[in-house]
């Protein structure tokens, strides 16, 4: 039987494909390439030395999804497919609700019809909204502060309701903190189109000489150096977290939310210094006004991930920066 990876050509999906293949799992990838390219799948096959089916299917297209379940013997789904840019979600809410929520509903309906009731879902620490209770535990009150966050919260609610209605479902809701870094081979990484919104992709573009300087969004927060603190996690640790979640749901029913973070918070300035050390470059920066919607401090309480999944992140900020720069430095022309 195979694990279906929706959004398998994306940033986290591609690393998870590689991780599952290396651990001996059979996979099937599905993507509509709205934010990725089929070449990523070629690279996953090259790195892992294994072949697997790829379906160029939009998850909103029910018949396309049915075809996949008809042809393949799917044991479980790891569901990454979706739009993920916060600012864009504010400008294009209907597109976000349609793709993320309606797309997920279509997928869950097809899974149910084919008796596939194991699911690992990409949620996000964004569901903690503006809570000031860092470190965030899974029972921290949830709220949505933008349409993107609302889609994650809605899908979590839908899945909790689904489990209540049919307790044979095995669902893992993984709340990622800030995934960064790249595959150590230098072959897989994040490929944002246009000017990046997130910190590390932006720093990488400055390091490549494609953007002039980093704008640090505020140095007047109540944090040790005044800049915001985040829980950056290596994308390979995240991929391993998905394998641990898959193994957990094989043995357990439920609809459990679990944080995937390191439990360590780093400020923007600390992140910048770590990247400079890893790359040997000086990154020009300028402090500017706060970005609307940013929380001062966000990092995970990782107790539940350790207890439930037997998983914890092992890679530190230096390794994250090294791999981030290896990918961005090598693939500068492609990015
Ligand atoms: P990504 O954009 O790199 O990957 C998403 C993939 O899904 C892309 O390859 C895209 O082409 C595909 N896709 C989008 N809509 C689709 C559709 N309708 N049908 C089929 N394929 C579709 O994003 P990522 O960083 O790998 O994130 C994966 C998931 O994790 C997303 O759901 C995202 O919201 C969530 N997440 C990401 C982060 C992060 O910082 N990267 C943080 C928290 C949660
Ligand atoms: C952002 C999203 C969050 C999403 C996550 C995915 C917002 C408000 N939040 O989180 O919902 O789940 O991405 O990875 O968009 N920074 C700068 N200069 C920059 C970019 C960022 O100073 O050019 C700072 C930000 O103020 C923040 C930190 O760097 O303090 C990290 O920012 P980012 O990488 O965008 O992640 P989040 O804001 O944590």
Q: Rounded to an integer, what's the Rg over CA atoms?
A: 19 Å
Shape: globular
- Give me the count of strands: 13
Distance between the termini: 35 Å
Strand content: 15-25%
Bound molecules: nicotinamide-adenine-dinucleotide, uridine-diphosphate-N-acetylglucosamine
Low-confidence stretches: none
Q: Helical proportion?
A: 40-55%
Major β-sheet profile: 7 strands, parallel
Average pLDDT, rounded to a whole number, is: 96
Q: How are the strands of the biggest sheet laid out side by side?
A: 3-2-1-4-5-6-11
Helical run tally: 11
**Global structural class:** alpha/beta
Order of helices and strands: EHEHEHEHHEHEEHEEEHEEHEHH
Give an account of the 3D structure.
By secondary structure, the protein is an alpha/beta fold. It is 41% helix and 17% strand. The protein contains eleven helices and 13 strands. It has helices at residues 11-22, 38-48, 62-71, 86-91, 93-113, 147-165, 199-207, 235-251, 268-279, 303-309, 317-330; strands at 2-6, 27-31, 54-56, 74-79, 118-124, 170-176, 178-180, 214-217, 229-230, 232-234, 254-260, 266-267, 285-288. The strands form four sheets. A seven-stranded parallel sheet has the order 3-2-1-4-5-6-11, sandwiched between helices. Strands 7-10 form a two-stranded parallel sheet. Helix 1 links the parallel strand 1 and strand 2 (27-31). Helix 1 packs parallel to helix 2, helix 3 packs parallel to helix 5 (93-113) and helix 7 (199-207) runs parallel beside helix 9 (268-279). The protein is globular and about 55 Å long. 47% of the residues are buried. The site of uridine-diphosphate-N-acetylglucosamine (UD1) has 18 residues, from helix 7 and strand 8.
């Amino acid at each position: 039987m195979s694990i279906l990876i929706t959004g398998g050509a994306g940033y986290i999906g591609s690393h998870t494909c590689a991780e599952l293949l290396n651990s001996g799992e059979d996979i099937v990838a599905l993507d509509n390439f709205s934010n990725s390219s089929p070449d990523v799948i070629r690279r996953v096959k090259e790195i892992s030395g294994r072949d697997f089916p790829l379906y160029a299917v939009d998850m909103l297209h029910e018949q396309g999804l049915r075809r996949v379940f008809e042809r393949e013997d799917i044991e479980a789904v790891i569901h990454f497919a979706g739009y993920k840019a916060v600012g864009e979600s504010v400008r294009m809410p209907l597109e976000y609700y349609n793709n993320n929520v309606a797309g997920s509903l279509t997928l869950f309906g097809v899974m149910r019809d084919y008796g596939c009731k194991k699911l690992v879902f990409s949620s996000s620490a964004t569901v903690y909204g503006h809570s000031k209770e860092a470190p965030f535990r899974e029972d921290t009150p949830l709220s949505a502060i933008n349409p993107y966050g609302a889609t994650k919260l809605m899908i979590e609610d839908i899945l909790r309701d689904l489990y209540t209605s049919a307790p044979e479902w095995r669902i893992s809701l993984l709340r990622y903190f800030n995934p960064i870094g790249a595959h150590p081979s230098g072959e897989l990484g994040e490929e944002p189109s246009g000017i990046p919104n997130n910190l590390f992709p932006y720093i990488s573009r400055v390091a490549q000489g494609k953007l002039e300087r980093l704008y640090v969004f505020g140095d007047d927060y109540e944090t040790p150096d005044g800049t915001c603190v985040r829980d950056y996690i290596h994308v390979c640790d995240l991929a391993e977290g998905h394998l641990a979640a898959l193994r957990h749901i094989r043995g357990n029913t439920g609809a459990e939310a679990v944080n995937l973070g390191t439990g360590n918070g780093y400020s923007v300035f600390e992140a910048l210094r770590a990247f400079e050390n890893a790359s040997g470059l000086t990154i020009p920066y300028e402090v500017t006004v706060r970005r609307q919607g940013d929380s001062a401090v966000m990092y995970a309480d990782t107790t539940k991930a350790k207890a439930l999944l037997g998983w914890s992140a092992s890679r530190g900020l230096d390794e994250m920066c090294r791999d981030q720069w290896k990918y961005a430095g090598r693939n500068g022309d492609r990015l």
